[in-house]
Amino acid sequence: MHVVTIGTGYVGINTAAALAYIGHSVWGVDVDAHKIEMLKSRKAPISEAGLDALLRLPLDLSFTTDLAECIQSADVIFIAVGTPSLPNGEANLAYVMSAAEDIGRTLKPDHDVTVVVKSTVPVGVNEMLERKIRMCVTADGGNDAYLHFASNPEFLREGTALLDTFYPDRFVIGTKDDIAYAMLYALFEPIIRQTFEMPDFIDAPSKRPETQCLRTDQISAEMIKYASNVFLALKISYANEIAGLAEKLGGNMADISRGMGMDKRIAPYFLQSGLGWGGSCFPKDSLALLSMAKDYDYEMPIVQAAVDVNERQKTRLVHKVLEKLYTLAGKRIALFGLTFKPKTDDVRNSPAVDIACELMRRGAVVVAHDPEGLALARVIYRDLGIVFCDDPELAAQDADALIIATEWPFYRSVDWAKIRTFMRTPFLFDARNLLRDQKELVSGFEYCGL
Ligand code: UGA
Questions:
Q1: Ligand 1 site-directed mutation target among 253, 341, 345, most atoms within 8 Å of CB
Q2: CA 412, CA 131: separation in Å to the nearest integer?
Q3: Domains of the chain: which residue ranges?
Q4: Is the CB of 274 under 6 A from ligand 1?
Q5: What is the residue with the minimal CA distance to atom 29 of ligand 1?
């Protein structure tokens, strides 16, 4: 099939490359000329395991900034652009609206095509985009009878995006249109039925998943995405709330999470306590869900509590630091980890950066190291005042305290004894509990988990 994906961010590029791998002819479109140039030279604009290797394969995969160059042959068009948060928590729909307008303006009349929304959009936006595209197509007397629409939310995680794309737990298709459903099912059939040849550029799971396919309406598909992300976020917040109480009562949170996760109904995932959730999805989607509910005067106290507990984790950490250092004015803090989680170079909406800002607001100098996130942090956060440092040992030089803010396995293998000798005082705040079970590595420190 001929496929166009609009947007080459995490969702767009992984979808485009995976669809090309399973035999489709794919165009990736983006307004960002720099990204498209990189992709044309087969270089991924994001750091994602296996993606560069996949792009180097001889696939039928092309890139352009000009939708008109590829749209006329498309059987399926994906909208996979971002929906970042506006200051009031609502999702910014400017990019999805502009993609819909581009599609509507560029499609030739009578073009038989299925338009699929993969972007995470608030409830009702699929319908709004459909109306917009139909309006554009019929404005000059065009026929929109051959247009089909579906919502197909994406569940991939940064850092394991290809793994999640090739081996998904579920595949959700939201549409009342039988043709749109059949097109999407056929497009992804090798993945849904797990019949594709397993790629060697990512670590395959020991067992192929039994991917479940759910057909529903567009609104429910939109809600499945938000409800899933926010459920995972509140699972983490719950673990964090329990961890706070465990600390007071003398419980061992590692064992508590383990013990809870042994119940199949609870499962062991997303019970890792620490600095809380960040990234481009959970913070944005929880706020968007609250904002949608507010429009209907509907309270969501559980979701609100998950957000509040997540914020409180940052305050808890700062208070722990204050308990040891008394004041932060003039203190030097080494921060290990800037990305919002390990295995990615993404430093956007990272709790680590929030912590750095709060410490600096209270007068500290923050010297930060990250195994992969420094290059992006130096660009995005160049004006914040964080001192970026390529060498963890240098970052710890003269530090009054050290905080592990991202659980990079790399920090297990640094020379902690040496780092200790560089520091002024030996306070180690392990805000991700990375070394909780290996405290012998940091025996020279006064260790404090979160
Ligand atoms: C999340 C979802 O997991 C994906 O299913 C979804 O497709 C994606 O959002 C999206 O909407 O695009 P992602 O943001 O890449 O994926 O990262 P996660 O692995 O879910 O982690 C999110 C945050 O939760 C990170 O800051 C991580 O450190 C934190 N976390 C995760 C914890 O604090 N504890 C845990 O036990 C797990």
A1: 341
A2: 53
A3: 2-215, 226-306, 313-449
A4: yes
A5: 277
Which pLDDT tens digits describe the chain residue by residue (450 residues)?
A: 999 999 999 999 999 999 999 999 999 999 999 999 999 999 999 999 999 999 999 999 999 999 999 999 999 999 999 998 888 888 899 999 999 999 999 998 788 999 999 999 999 999 999 999 999 999 878 888 899 999 999 999 999 999 999 999 999 999 999 999 999 999 999 999 999 999 999 998 999 999 999 999 999 999 999 999 999 999 999 999 999 999 999 999 999 999 999 999 999 999 999 999 999 999 999 999 999 999 999 999 999 999 999 999 999 999 999 999 999 999 999 999 999 999 999 999 999 999 999 999 999 999 999 999 999 999 999 999 999 999 999 999 999 999 999 999 999 999 999 999 999 999 999 999 999 999 999 999 999 999
2-215: what CATH class?
A: alpha beta
**CA-proximal residue: ligand 1, atom 18 (nearest):** 157
Q: Which long-range contacts (CB under 8 A, 24 or more apart) does 136-142 make?
A: 136/100, 136/101, 136/103, 136/104, 136/105, 136/107, 137/104, 137/107, 137/109, 139/104, 140/109, 141/109, 142/107, 142/108, 142/109, 142/110
* Cβ-proximal residues to 37 (8 Å cutoff; 6+ apart), any chain: none
- Measure 42 CA to ligand 1 centroid, in angstroms: 27
Task: Indicate which atom in ligand 1 lies nearest the CA of residue 275.
Answer: 33
Q: Is the CB of 271 under 6 A from ligand 1?
A: yes
Q: Comparing 2-215 with 226-306, is the CATH topology the same?
A: no
- The CA distance from 186 to 2, in Å, is 12
The model's pTM: 0.94
CATH fold group of domain 313-449:
Rossmann fold (3.40.50)
What CATH fold (topology level) applies to the domain 226-306?
N-(1-d-carboxylethyl)-l-norvaline Dehydrogenase; domain 2 (1.10.1040)
Q: Closest ligand 1 atom to the C-alpha of 350? A: 26
Q: Is the CB of 270 under 6 A from ligand 1?
A: yes
